[in-house]
User: Fold these one by one.
Assistant:
Number 1:
Amino acid sequence: MTASVEPLGSYERWLPPGLGLAAGALAVLVGAGLFELSRTLAEVARGRWYAGNGRDVFHAGAVAVLGTAYLVNGLPPALAFVMAATVAIPPLLLIDELPDRARRLPLFVALLALGSAPALLDAPRVVAATNALARALFY
């Protein structure tokens, strides 16, 4: 009989729950800030590299910050960063649609917080569910 290995990895928390939640909240704020910085640069510095393709550096930074927060809250690395990339999609779809910073930044925070809630509040279930899905699809 062979040992069962989880397809996407196993739950392993790096921080105590309270500190992990604080790290997640900070990551949501930093991620939203990076999205807002990206949009502000696009408005202020039209035509320069960081206002065009360079904005992707800020978008990738937001995904990296979120993914790291999910990782320290117990998600396996691949799942943490795939989930972070997925959570970043709604703000990226809306980033150029809202011209008003006063409405844009709170929307980014709300979207990232809502998308991050499962990974930050119930990471063991997220890991179990995605592993069950992977087993059902690929085994």
Number 2:
Amino acid sequence: MSDENEFQVRRLMQQLEHQFVEINKRNISDIAGDITEQDFNKLAEAISLCRANYLKEVLQMANTDDGSLCERLSDQVRNQRVLYEEAMQGFAALRHALERGYFVLKAD
């Protein structure tokens, strides 16, 4: 690729990145509304509860008397794990959006 083509590609990518930021800013603001530090704290609390419930189910599974795993217990562990993982991914997405400047943290 020539220097001129490389420059054009870099410029196009910068323009697209700027457009992506603006699109994300608009959509996050329109759909999620204002996001505050308290929202981050509430999400951290929710993640903590998901983690605790998941660990509770894991420990119950580990403490079965006969060492067998019943399907019901296995389903409960899986459901709690999915909730925990989704909450963690949600927090990562929120943090990523903040770090990318898709929204400004509002005062509480």
Number 3:
Amino acid sequence: MKKRTTSLIMLLLSCCNIGFAWDNLHFYRASFFFGEPRFERQALTTLNVRAGAGSTHKGRDGCTRKVCLLDIFGPQVMFKLGENVPYKDLTTPEDATLQLLEIEPARNGFGLFSYGGKFKTAEVDIQLYQNLVKGFFLELYLPIRKLEINDINCLDLSSDCPPCPNRNNPIWQSFLNQYTNILSKYNLCQDGVNHTGIGDTSLLAGWTVNYEQTEDLDFIDFTIEAGVLFPTGRKANPDIIFDLPQGYNGHYGFPLNMSVAFGLYEWFTFGGHVMVLPFKNRTEELRMKTSTAQNGAIMLAKGCADVHHGSIWQAAVYLKADHAIRNLSLLTGYSYSSERASTLAPINTALFDPSIVNSNDMLRGWNMHTIHLLAEFDFLKECSLWGPRFGVFGNIIVGGKRIFNTNMAGGTFGLDLVWSF
């Protein structure tokens, strides 16, 4: 028994790293650290729990500029809000106002809304790994999120200076007076968002190798894994303007991850990571543009379309000082994350022109540059049969397009255990 105990302790001491981690990437918060390669030991079980939170009033638009939170796709174009919307009833004051407004002559800056608000999120990620034989392993990833948008406010960007039309235009003033009723008529709500629930669950299978037969390096570690992302998260409500899904809005995904690390000087590690996440197409009911002049999240017309969700990918590097101060390890990294443009194929092309529908900046995708900072302390003790790890992290956004500028901070807990009897 003493021999097995000593062997287990030495194993845990040798495999204390910040584990290979799968992360669902989203535009509304900084990406988490992507993780190191998996340890190869047969029958090793690892539990990682990560909890983080962040908030912001700012976003970044398509030119990387910091803007009001809900202006990441540009200002909302309101003077063409009703153009080509099907089934308008011009006997109602709401649709009559929309009809009059859309025939007003265009003027730069006229009829635009800027929307601001505050975004808050808290997230707990649970990752469970089980090594099998010959380097093969399984991973289960379950995120739990709280997403909140509140303090939503609207600013009229129209100028009150000549020439006309301007803010004092009587039709524009009528629109402003009717705006709440217009949204209500088309079953749209601009209230805040507050949801807590699980995100999309992932099940992956992988293979890892820890190669130490080198002359100039301490080791070379490599891990590859692939699997299925299941749409277990709540989907966004198309009748709530600024709603957010808990996952990828009902799409199945097929993640592929690769990670490599090189060890030097018995304490220094340099590593890299790449990930790609394509999605399966699905048909859904959603809001779509009916005019080339429209842009942003506020759209009156709703219909069904085949949605081709843009794939997501990430490339990253990191440096780690392993046990730099006693049992304390320090790590810094950088990642570039990006979502490619999505496309919609409307079912009813008589009502929705595909070229108009797909001209919305909301479909152009996003990208994000993130700095990752981590510190982790392991509490392994002699004659202990288990190896807990605790850490703190910060993920800082340093650039990007069409994202919320939400930095994240929090803590981690990990536990490694070998089932050897």
Number 4:
Amino acid sequence: MRDADKKLIEEIIGSMSCSKGFRCAESGFENLCKARDFGVESYLDCLDEARSLCKFALPFADIYLCQCPLRVFLAKKLKK
């Protein structure tokens, strides 16, 4: 991972709170919730089974939109 990406990740983490304690970052981004980029700039399609419990999951029609800034960055910029 590039230093610039690491710096952006640190900035994102510093600007938010996570009810899961940033488990994704603690795992080196190996343990990520399931989400899919579907082309909307600031959102992902949340595919996680426990999505209704996540404070970043927004129900919309028949899907949940992930609006976690860190998860969105990882999916859109780093393709994770």
